[in-house]
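Hi C.,

You asked whether I'd gotten around to modeling the 318-residue construct. I have! Everything is below, sequence then structure, no commentary in between.
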Amino acid sequence: MSKVIDILKHSTAPFASFELVPPLKGSDVSRLYDSIEPLMEFQPPFINVTCHRDEVEYAPNGDGTYTKLVLARRPGTIAIVAAIMRRYQVEIVPHVICGGASKSKVESELLDLHFLGIENVVALRGDAIPGQRFFIPEPDGFAHTDELVGMIHNLNHGVYLDPTVKNGVATNFCVGVAAYPEKHYEAANLNTDIENLKRKVDAGADYVITQMFFDNQNFYRFVDQCRKAGITVPIVPGLKPISAKRQIELLPRSFHIDIPQDLVSAMQQARTADDAYQVGIEWGICQSRDLLAHGVPAIHYYTMSKADNVKAIVKAVF
């Protein structure tokens, strides 16, 4: 097994890595494999797998009261990881989130991953559930990612939540965390957000992967500010190609990011859906080439489990 931080430090050339979204409940494992297969020709050293917290709905009972329903929309992380490991020789990096789970539940998931031989995770807070304006942690959960990173750091030293566990076997996790070149929407400003990122790194994070962005200058400024703040770990840019005109409006709403005017204009001038799709690919190619020219160690592509446009970009660049 290889740790992501070692791959980043010792790779002789920049590389592409990918992030997948597990298929919805009701799909079979072939849907998962179909999203991976087109990318394997690039021999990615690792593939990230997102984690989605259970959703909450309230069903009316007919008497004015409601019943709370907790719904899992996708298969669990352990099942997805095991299915990929069974078929492919590639490092799997599952996401582990604070949202919707107690500290004990998160620890159990980490120990399950450890038993599977997983050595890499990405630690995330997670989003608020629909209906919540802001993230609300579970009563016995983590409110911030640095707390989760700290627990993983403790597990790596054989320290478990249960104080009665003596001489616990140490895990061996390499930990990635997320960052936001245009700041997290809840942060007061970018400097405050970078301070939050530094807390995650100081707690034990080994490297950083950014949220998507479409203006490389925002990424370069962000990295410079991180370095000035004392963050020295590798920072990997994350890219997602735009694939449709409507995403010009949807992506800023969902991810609180800016779309450069040149890209907006090019998408607006696209006459067909295929033209718009190609505009997104061409922008992704230009972004990727510029990032590589500026010496990034890798580029992480968010595929959303639809790999054709990402495949075209990586084929043109790497």
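If it helps when you're writing up: The chain has a mean pLDDT of 92.

Thanks,
B.
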